[in-house]
Amino acid sequence: MPHEIPNRRSWLKTMLYGTGALIGLDAASPTAKAAPISPKDTIKVTKLETFVLKNSWVFVKIHTDAGITGWGEMLKDDAKACAAGAMEVGDYLIGKDPRPVVHHWQAIHRGAFYRGGPIKTAIQSGIDQALWDIAGKCYDVPVYKLLGGPTRDKALVYGTPNEKTGVKHMKVSKWTDRRAHKYLEGNKFVEEAVERFAALRARYPGVDIALDFHGAVQPTTASLLIKALEHLKPWFYEEVVQALNVDVMADLAKKTHIPLATGERIFTKWGFREILEKGAAMILQPDVNYAGGITELRLIAGMAEAYYAPLAPHNPNGPCSLAASLQVAACIPNFLVQERGDREHDLLAEPLPPVKNGYRPIPTGPGLGITIDEDKLMDEVGEPREYLPQYDADDGSVVDW
After folding, report:
1. Domains along the chain with CATH numbers
2. pLDDT tens-digit map of 94-116
3. In percent, how much of the chain has pLDDT > 90?
4. Catalytic positions
């Protein structure tokens, strides 16, 4: 019987893994260097892993039988719940082709009776990033090219003003000795906030400075602060109140000409629909680790474009979060700025392209465009930070933070 001519993928597997692949050598071995595959070749998910770090970051790694792996990140709160939930979704993914990413997004979302919620959507977000990472690596292109980009080749960032990086945009969340957590702060607090912010403006001339209320300010105090600070021309106000009652935020938006931004605690297109329809914010800040991943951020951006609203993705987390956000920036027209886009990450095997003149070049490598240093990551695996409610120092009552 004549031997069959191996297809391209079979040949690649033999070259990459040798005959050991035929006797059970894990095709996802970290020592194996995966190569792009043909769109006609088959590829299946073989394993899913999660990693909870001591700083509460949660990573997910998806393996395939082609030796190609994908990485993503999830919500840093409720870290153990996110990690465990992702493993349950792994039961659905194993054995399936990872490349129809949007199909998997819908299956994970609609396959459960109870949909949405912060933990469920965070699980989806991390898996979505990892699947896009795999898809880009399969075809040897960055994710943004699979989504119609590039719309730009670099992303404006905000972080720490710096002559070397040229960053001239920043945000501050602590601009008084404490956050305004009482139901109605007095004039002394408001005057202190104005004085401190004025000093900050003087310290950083020529820098746009946003003010983050962090959802910790009650509406009664927020209404005083947004008017008292207007003359100092903040870049924008972020999370002036919690987004649980969108009507309250919409009312506050009408009281100031300073743009309001929100989104870090809002998930999926359905959550942002109400923000846009009610005019509660002019700048949307979805988190790629929480709002539904790359797939959902692209759809949220499309909705926002109809309202002439830009995206400024939220990013308090690690390298996958930043890299995935930059991929989104490169495939949407209405990107504004990337939070903490000047931050470098020790968990990367190779650094991201450096920030220059206030802009971070979009990673052009396949997938998310980054490589995780797994040894460094494993050194950080451990118990996440403990759950810490915040209290009023005066009366001991629980407050927002």
Report:
1. 8-142 (3.30.390.10), 146-368 (3.20.20.120)
2. 999 999 999 999 999 999 888 88
3. 83
4. 214, 314
